[in-house]
């Protein structure tokens, strides 16, 4: 690891605080992740923003919550507040598989070791702080708090939970990407306003007594959800709530949301408008060391850092609105892009790393190819409340030009310190299929594909059709599988033209709402016909604040309130998952017997062929 002064990192110990000449911290951050000082890790971003606003910040990373709680006391009591995050993942997703089995590793811990954070980490950490320091405000944020900000279904407990503010006893919650509300909060507390009184800032949530008047903000309208107690007894009301939350989360100018929870009112202020280029650059250009804290040196590498240390995140947000995905719920529907200058500055920084060998692992984002995409006429976007810009069709107002992205690829390619720059993020292939995307007026999509395939594929390219059944894909808010076939034809033609053998790696999901067992058999047969032996597959996990989670729990679609089938038992889910692996000997008899029972011998024939006396399959 590069040798540099310990004061280049935000302090993790009392000794490091003293080395900076500080006798008190303004804010102490508690995180479920190890501290990696890199813009891909939320705790580092939050800490560096606070530092840039003149605050003295310390971090307690992965504190022990099972001993005498000394980790929570080691940096003392902050002047303004504690900030709490479970980390870059919801702690329950981090801990458990779709079958609710405990995972054996944790990518955000040195050595990949599991067991360094509790279940429901936000709640556990916040409660400990409230017990030790009852007079110090607690601010919670990060993806776990963000996606649990209202009444939500928890798959692992198999029940509805109220807003995480209730169980955590925290004072304020910041949802979504926190830079904008955080800067406002810091200015407020520095001016002498207590954290608990900063109730008119966008993108925060808090609880107040039921009888108290709502804070007055002239430009905000207020919409009320069904109460938590009503949701507990009426699944339809819970489903209807979700539609309101998703619509408001995706609006250009949203309404304030309130919900009654016991004798309190949950208040969720509207989000900020999506960060512009200047704000994005300001966040990414902070003085990160881009390295894990030196204290982890002897404990082994941090897998999540090793995966991204030579990658560049160029934008945030996703306008796909996939029903199983939390990206738009947390990062927003509208794309926030960095400037070319900021991106190239980061490329320069990467090339100066002592162990950099000339290969960038990813030039990407949540979806690799949404950089700089936005509405052509933003006044139309301002009136829109659709959760997706590309489902069921691509909006005619969406500028899907890949030209800015292609130009960045070329500039990175031309950098003297770069041998190859790969695209490791998943490519949204439907944007590149002209039959689906009618917004390709100057054929720049073809230029992008040529550049991508010939210069930026590291052996294979990731894409995510997710399913082959049109009925299931409609529930997923994904395009028909026929468009994947068209993309594959185009991809194969360009690869053949240049003599390249770089297979497509498609991602698929089993047991998603709307998927029957026969749909999985069809998926297996269709992908077999295309020459795939599937590897990148997963069983559906209902995560908070997604359409698919609501369907799984309630049995109805939150927009139509019509019933939708979902595999729920362990046996149903395992049965669907087995079809991915039709080519494995141990599943062949089972698949043939199942398809016979389902009266689909035609699918058994497609997958396994006919039996005869001398040949089993």
UniProtKB/TrEMBL annotation:
Its cofactor is [4Fe-4S] cluster. It comes from the Bacteria. [4Fe-4S] cluster binds at residues 318, 322, 325. SMART domains: Elp3. Binds 1 [4Fe-4S] cluster. The cluster is coordinated with 3 cysteines and an exchangeable S-adenosyl-L-methionine. Residues 304-584 form the Radical SAM core domain. It holds the Pfam family Radical_SAM_N. Keywords: 4Fe-4S, Iron, Iron-sulfur, Metal-binding, S-adenosyl-L-methionine. NCBIfam families: SAM_YgiQ (TIGR03904). Belongs to the UPF0313 family. PANTHER family: UPF0313 PROTEIN YGIQ. This is YgiQ family radical SAM protein. It comes from Aquirufa ecclesiirivi.
